[in-house]
Predict the 3D structure of the following.
Amino acid sequence: MDSVMAHFRAGSKVVTVRAPNVLECPSMQATTSSRSSAPRRKASPYPLDRELVNDLVAANRTLARLGVLDAFGHISVRDPRQPHRYLISRSIAPETINAADILLLDLDSQTVDPRDEGTLLYRERFIHGEIYKARPDVSAVVHSHSPTVVPFTVTRAKLRPLLHNAGFLGLGVPLFEIRKHAGNGTDLMILTPNLGKDLAKKLGKDAAVVLMRGHGDSVVGPSLPNAVFRAYYTEINARQQLAAITIGGPTNFMTHAEALTSNQAMLNASARPWALWRKRALAER
Amino acid sequence: MDSVMAHFRAGSKVVTVRAPNVLECPSMQATTSSRSSAPRRKASPYPLDRELVNDLVAANRTLARLGVLDAFGHISVRDPRQPHRYLISRSIAPETINAADILLLDLDSQTVDPRDEGTLLYRERFIHGEIYKARPDVSAVVHSHSPTVVPFTVTRAKLRPLLHNAGFLGLGVPLFEIRKHAGNGTDLMILTPNLGKDLAKKLGKDAAVVLMRGHGDSVVGPSLPNAVFRAYYTEINARQQLAAITIGGPTNFMTHAEALTSNQAMLNASARPWALWRKRALAER
Amino acid sequence: MDSVMAHFRAGSKVVTVRAPNVLECPSMQATTSSRSSAPRRKASPYPLDRELVNDLVAANRTLARLGVLDAFGHISVRDPRQPHRYLISRSIAPETINAADILLLDLDSQTVDPRDEGTLLYRERFIHGEIYKARPDVSAVVHSHSPTVVPFTVTRAKLRPLLHNAGFLGLGVPLFEIRKHAGNGTDLMILTPNLGKDLAKKLGKDAAVVLMRGHGDSVVGPSLPNAVFRAYYTEINARQQLAAITIGGPTNFMTHAEALTSNQAMLNASARPWALWRKRALAER
Amino acid sequence: MDSVMAHFRAGSKVVTVRAPNVLECPSMQATTSSRSSAPRRKASPYPLDRELVNDLVAANRTLARLGVLDAFGHISVRDPRQPHRYLISRSIAPETINAADILLLDLDSQTVDPRDEGTLLYRERFIHGEIYKARPDVSAVVHSHSPTVVPFTVTRAKLRPLLHNAGFLGLGVPLFEIRKHAGNGTDLMILTPNLGKDLAKKLGKDAAVVLMRGHGDSVVGPSLPNAVFRAYYTEINARQQLAAITIGGPTNFMTHAEALTSNQAMLNASARPWALWRKRALAER
């Protein structure tokens, strides 16, 4: 759905209502919000790439629909034209994000466009900025409370790749224990640039995923589709590893070589689910 | 995308109302649809706050959609203008509740408006009234058969916070064993004011959640959005604790200080999912 | 949806198409089939009670939506006006059933209306007829492959009531092992009147549920809403008992007296979910 | 209830077709929607059977909806008029497949119609071609990452039939360990005709299912509905076996004779779910 119009099905025709006629209604506004504000963006001194914005909207809605993101969590994408900046939504629930909610931040996680001043930002946005600083190879970051990953952050079992789609877990799955960095009494959130730096350091130079104790994970990728793919299959691998633990006995994990080969193959193969996911997400309200 | 027309079932015919007649907005009017009785409420000597009523409708539909409430369970909210009274639905399944179903009860859980006499009330409504009496800090109560919480009411494992969103569990999770209060042969239901008082006493002065053996739980909060948030994350924490038990070995639960800090943080943070949940719920049916 | 008409939403009006106009289309037929054949039923020497037929349609769709029935399984209801006969669908998947699919069988599970001769019947319909013969107190029977009940039919754990809604399990949960009745090489199905009699005997005079090894269960009730309620909460109790086993240690099951009291209470309380389920099911296509 | 109009997205505009133009039936036309290319097929020297194409579309959408297929996986059906060829989609996600995506391949898994040259094919299509070569009795193949089957490919538990619908598992459930055929460093995929042959050999002459370590399974059947049925009940049996393991103690699996009898019975019985699944799938989108 691309137009600023709302289309209603009628018995024998499509009724098209122009946006000005439907703005009295909150639910319609959700549908049309990105459009009503599109003009504002166009006039911005920091115009955003429309397709990249749509990608980011689709990524948020997709991981919400797939159950990786709940009402919290956030996804960002580095701006390929200005790699010292990244796109991320203002602070709202992922499944409700529209194009007009997408903002441009610098790597200190501050807004760039003066007109965005005062907009409510994700409090944990430093996760994104600090990872982009530390990892030039990273183009997208997903932070989530992935439900079956959380139990692996509070137990001694190591999350390891057993499903071939999850070979990227073979790059290492470090665990960030916030107590070591901020003491015994935090709310487990990454609320400062320094904690963001600590998290990025724990992620290291190679890993695709860093677990966050009692909290969730942060997943990175060389592209947005790949980061979304990895966030999803981290959850799936966790579910299957949990089932393997239930079955009992030794688990035949992937070898390191298999994991690396598979990770390479999936850099391209993630295009197939992405095509499906993006189309479906952008067709939603 | 729905029609701009609203269709109501009314007995055996479909009533079609044109948009201009329905508050400019199909989704809002969906909320007020069974408001054939709305006029009645307006003329009431005990008019209810419209936004609070919509909040309560949204809370019911949301926790039904999220799987915390089944066809049973109920939610109430204290009336901030008259704290000795609370709002709750008449006795119907949560996901079917509309604004016209919301009633005003006093803290003895009796109807206030004479015209509500004879309306079928939840038999366990004393849970709500007695908790409001005992806990002036409580503004909302959720009683549910939360599916993954029930197993923790019949086993010796203690439900404890491991997910940072569930820090409120660190305030204590007492277990109400009805056998100690009403003997060995009840149907486990809180059917009298006295049992309501016993339950409120077991909840105590600090806890946010009281487990009810073989039955479910009752969750309280300083606001309706916060109580809904807590009811949801009690279920999520139970699922994740179950997974941690499956994985085995010691579980790295939150420290008491972490739980308290997190609980404080979530008093505000529950606004984000609430915005999403309320909007979505009121756009339904 | 009650009429023989199909209603489409239009921008400003409801377009109503008479059935003869929409019969070219298989998917529309599904919607309108019960109506196209309504005239036939009216002229039948064995007219069915319209509300009872709708109840049975709603029961099938509901248990399919709730995941108790898959594409197999069947539900019947005794005809209160002629207790030696019962209503059941012809042999199709439960979620696709419409009013026109409902047939009248005698207690030998044979069709009554000569015009139904040759209609494909459920092969296991003897489950229903033989239970009605053996249990005059039973008004409805649900046979399903309830997914979490099946594991309890092939292991030594006894399914027992832990959730107050499932007190009826306290009436006993016998296990039917078909090998004892038909040897080691059957397909586990109840394909003959004699096997139906054996199953009814295993159910006994009191139980509400009989487990069928490697197959599922059959659930009975004094009313259709109650049988649907029991079939659903048998599945829920099985899920919660599985979780309790995962948690480990002794499980605090209901006492026998609690189970009986609860069972009595739920005979009435099953009206609440039924009102929700029926309305929702009949609003579906 | 949908409009009687059909709306197609075509690049940037919505094309609306009146019902009389679309085969009298919105749902059928939904199936053929991306049939901008249908005319092309009609003129093909290798015209495909329209009903078989619709069957294959329905099979893909059904197993995606049932959670057996994720964005990966593929289904094929042997062409009964030319058994040395088979139908399969081009390389896209199963739930998005339309009739125009279906291609004809020979048993070396190469395209037949010169106009299909350059179309992106599933990289693992050799699974299908090589199984058809080795097993003349096989008419359809499903390859999936069936989520609860994967854990059984990396543990020592043997997947065995416990649910009567899954009697076909009694024909044997061999495990394909790719390390034995292609070494320690593959991405676990069947990317060559030789690996396809090895997999077909491991499947053997009798089995209906071959497990693929860390990857999923391939399921075959004498008909497409039966192969879809088997793929679904392999997943269901795996879930129930996992639950039986959780319950603990010995599991009362089907005897070999029961499994064989059940398998025979289900060759016909799979028609019932297929009727439901096909109708529902073709009514989508």
Observations:
- Chain B has a mean pLDDT of 87.
